[in-house]
Specification:
By secondary structure, the chain is an alpha+beta fold. Helices cover 35% and strands 26% of the residues. Helix 2 (89-110) packs antiparallel against helix 4 and helix 6 (236-250) packs across helix 7. The protein starts with a strand and ends with a helix.
Amino acid sequence: MSTTTSESEQGPEGSRVPRLIHNEATTEIPVHLLFRPTEVGSGGQAGQVGHVAPRRGTGEQPRVVRRESVAAAVVDPELVERSARVLPGAVGVLAGGGGVAGCVVTGWWAGVLPSLARELTGLPAYAGAGLGAPQWAAFAVSGAVGLFGFGGLARGRTGCAWVLGLFGRYRGTVRRTGLMWVNPLLLRRRIDVRLRHWRSEPMPAVDAHGLALRVVVLVIWRVRDTARAALGVEEYERYLRECVEAALARLPADGEGVREKLTRLVAADAVAAGLQVFSVQPLRTEYAPEVAAVIQRRRLAALDAPLEGQV
């Protein structure tokens, strides 16, 4: 810090100009306070702002430090539920029936059709041309059409969806109900999309004083994005259970508004797996066995103390 000591300054013509400000002082400003870069947290979002105490004797102002926020789960943007292409069930029935009819006609053409089947179908008697290359080709085509027709028939139910995949690639989701035809080459996985509830077993937690607790919670949830639930995580039900355990470890189980806080934390973590969480409500909270035993001994000792004084 430097202080001016001259009482006057020289004017333009050599005359002395009296000083207007007396005892003025100039404080040195650190260079890093003039140019402060903006720190960005993980995920492209700015972190939380904190303050750092200034260094003594330097005249430095408190510095602002941005703390990085907790990184959220990164989800593949292409892994989003979309509708798969399916056909009405009547198309599969007609294709399967056509394949069966083709096999019957080919057998009559080759002369290998049993007499009972010929009488039931009303075909005229025919000696047949024998099983040659044309007959085998007709059998193959008719059989393939019949297998594709009947093999692709599926029945959709209310509250369930089919997740389709081919060679490890997501091909769409079917939420239709009733009889329909789906490509039989696609791998199907049934997902329950109804509203569900899960009552947990006693899970470890702590209270505001750090004492161990056992908490039973009720979670109301459903699968919202079937693609992420089926392919984004290994087991979405296990993922939800671990999200609840992590939320209980971050919050005191006996605090105010614990239901709203638990619901907010679990819902934020479950979005990455395509799950929608409506409520996370503690049903029963009790001390851990080892803590409960200590508390019980203290209560018994407190009850016995007056009796011992009277004796």
